[in-house]
Amino acid sequence: MGDRVAARAESSELTRQRILEAARHLFTERGYFNTSLQDIRRESGLSIGSIYHHFSGKEELARELFYETLSFVESDIRRVYERYSGARERCYHVIESLFETTESLPEVMEYVLYFKHREVLPTEKPICASRPFEIIKSIIAEGMAAGEIRPMDEVMASAALLGGPIRLVQLRLEGVIVDPLTQHLPEAWECAWRSVAA
Fold first, then answer.
1. Could you tell me which of 69, 131, 126 has the C-alpha nearest to residue 101?
2. In the chain, what is the straight-line distance between the N-terminal and C-terminal CA atoms, in Å?
3. CA atoms within 13 A on the CB side of 98
4. pTM exceeds cut of 0.85
């Protein structure tokens, strides 16, 4: 009995993920307002009933996708924060993780960078003002306190540190950079760190 309940729960979660992945793909490719539930149904290969079983409508789907993406980004940054010490090492691994995610899950990065969350969810903070980026600001503040990063506004420091790498991610997603970003990590890191290093 317990095995069947567990199997049903696992199947339900897989269905939910399939719907979210289809929505992410379409929201990123076409935009939220140009995507209908019928489009998501076709993309996911599921029935409208399955979608309504998991989500009350497109707005709830967008909200869940927003929170899931935030959670994904936060877990990556938190893992770096807990695994490494010092601002230099942590910042390096944040950028490394950013580049690795771009290569392994480009659609997630496209969603983070291009989806206009405020149009769809006007009461939500944008991703760049959310918990993951608060952790980055903490890394920077700790780096300033330790003398690794020169004193400056934390928002300016995070923009200086991550602006170049994020632009490289955009260029990779647009096909301007054809090699995997991970091949460019040493040079990108050197430029980023020099912009804030004490």
1. 69
2. 61
3. 27
4. no
Cα distance between residue 124 and residue 51, in whole Å = 23
Q: CA-to-CA distance for 85 and 45, rounded, in angstroms?
A: 45
pLDDT of residue 149: 96
CB-CB neighbours of 128 under 10 Å? 16
For residue 88, give both structure tokens.
């230099």
The label of the residue with tokens 């460019």 reads 184
Q: Are 62 and 144 in contact (CB under 8 A)?
A: no
Closest to 108 measured CA to CA, from 94, 122, 98: 98
- Spatial neighbors of 133 by CB under 8 A, at least 6 apart, are 127, 158
Residues of the chain with pLDDT under 50: 5-6
Q: Tell the residue number behind the tokens 């090492």, with chain if given.
A: 89
